[in-house]
Each structure stands twice: as C-alpha cells, then as structure tokens.
Design goal:
Radius of gyration: 22 Å
CATH architecture of the largest domain: Sandwich
Strand content: 25-35%
Oligomer: single chain
Number of strands: 14
CATH class of the largest domain: Mainly Beta
Order of helices and strands: HEHEHEHEHHEHHEEHHHEEEEHEEE
Structural class: alpha+beta
CATH topology of the largest domain: Tumour Suppressor Smad4
Amino acid sequence: MTWEAWVAIGALVLAGCAVVIAVVVLRRLRELRLKVAADAAAAEGDASDAEPAEPRLVAFIANPSKPDVAAARGEILRATAEIGLTTPLWLETTVEDPGVGQAREAVRRGADVVVVVGGDGTVRAVAEALTGTKVAMGIVPVGTGNLLARNLDLPLGDPAAALRIALEGSDRTIDVGWLRVLRDGSVEDDVTSPAERIAPGAQASRDHIFLVIAGVGFDAAMIADTDDNLKARVGWIAYFVSGIRHLHGRRLRVTVRLDGAPPETLRLRSLLVGNCGRLPGGLTLLPDALIDDGWLDVAAIDTRGGVAGWAQLFGEVVLQGVGVRTELPAKIGRIDHTRARTIHARFSSTEPVQVDGDIVGRACDVEARVEEGALVVRVARA
C-alpha cells in the first residue's frame, strides 16, 4: 500500500473521530436547549390553563404520506380542544398540490396560525404561500431532514412538544431565499440579458423558495441519487450513502457574480447559497449564516486529491461547526465563505439543482436572492 493511501486512511480516521466528538457535544447542547424550551412552553401552558386563551383559528396542513401523520391528527385535535381553541382547519396535501393551495385557503378563511405537519417539502410549500402575509407558520416536524425545524431549535421526534410551541410559542420574523433557473441547458444561445436567458416553459423560469440551503453540483447530485426506500429506513444517513457514489465526480467550472460585482470564475464541486446552515448529523455547513440578517451566505466547496481531499473537507466542516477554523495553505479540501444579497452563477455544464433537499431540475444558469423579513414562524418562548 502506497504512502498516499495510508495518508488518506489516516485522514478519514481523524475526520471520523472529529465527527463523533462533535456530534456528541452538539447533541448534549441541543438536549439542554430543548429542555429549557420545553420547560418554558410548559410554564406558558400552565398559565394558559389558568387564563383561557381567546379563541382563534388554527389551520393544520398535513402530508398524509408521512406515517406519523394519521396518528398525530387525533392528538392534535385533543390538544387544541384542551387549550380552548375553536375547531381547527385540517387540510391535507396532494401530489398535485404539496401545500401552497392549502395554505392560501387557510389564509383566505382567516387562520391566525398555519401549522405544518410534514417534512421539508411541505414546509417549503406552505412557506411560499405565507411569505408576505404576516400569518405565522408553526412546524410539527415529521420528515427526514427537518432542516428548518433544526435551525429554529424546534424539538424533533416529540410532536407534542413541537405542537405546544406551534400553538403557544413566540412569533419570529425570518428571511427567505428565492432561486430561479434562468437557463436549463435546453437553450444553446449565449445571450446576456436575464430576460432573454429564461428558457421556455413555466418550470424553468419559476422562483423556488428556500428557507435553509440551495445548491448546484455535488450536493444536488447526492440528493437526486438518494434511495427513497433506504431513506425511509435509516433517515438522513441515506444521503451520505448516496454521496459516496459521487466522490469521484468531476470538478465544475462556474462564473459567479455577487451583488453586481465583477464576475469571478471558479473551479468547485458545489456552490451553496444558504439562509441558515445547520444540517442533520450535527453538522453546520454555514457557521456565519443568520436566518434574519438580510443576507445569503455563499459557500464554494472544492476538493482535489480524491478521498484525501474529501476527508479534509469533512474535517473542516465538522470543526467549523464547533467554532474551529483552520487556515492551512494549499488545502486539498476547502470551503470558502462569503455573503451577498443576490447571486448569479453560470456553469459550463448543466447540473442538478436542489432547494432544501428537493430537486427542482437541472440548470446551467441560476440566480438567487434574499427577501428580508418575509416570513413569520413560531419558535419556543425565550
């Protein structure tokens, strides 16, 4: 075995140890945060028992394909009755409408709060309809990634606690991101006007909301290739299994323009644009991202040197999640951070595109923008 192979193995072992340590620490911190949030919500609940809340209309939008939703419905209806709410609306998503139409219907019927019972796709759809309305969105997370719920420190695996926060928590205003496919690879011209770059078809020119992270390249290819059956059995770990199959993919060439500044040409594996940066497994991909600062955080991820480069990159991500950053020169695995309010990226090839873990197609020309303070969400009381 060559010394390069031994170095790669050693790097993988060190990265694995770092992951284990970071996950344990982050889980302990998260448990403490959740306990504080649960105690605060329970105390608020006791106060509401003494002084019944004024009746208000709550709408629940549920994804019936999630196995926990059917059992949760009875518990939810009992809980709303116990705190003196009027009979809530219960609306279910469909394949044709994953939640946008249901959320608009809830707003039309006067709902004060719209609670999502589902995963990231349902959360995105409901958020799209609620953006700009000032109607609060609560979340009872029952999905695989539960990305926004993680970044809002909502309880995972405890629907009762999440429901209590959705009904009695505090309102918080957050930013949302929008990604538009300007060119999907089917148009071969080389025009420069954004209006001319829009490819034919409504899907190509549609704005896609994202609340956590959008990406082009390796991350989207990994998501697109994830086995649904495996994801149902092992959850978010299925994404890592898929990622292994793409470790030896080619580097991409992309020209990036931030906020109208001169364009810069890069070689990378993934271009990520984030509103916030916490991922499953205790990983924080964008440590400086704040969900309500009016900025999008941009990460250019690149690796060279095969497995060793990916091992170094993985170690970088783990360490930055616990507040440690390395500035070693000539790194073979790196993640470069910046931020902007608008981003335009043109790739030399057509690549998969994802928003919050949902594949929205393939593109070679995209742009993203932030809409500051556009969405109200329910979080635990401080």
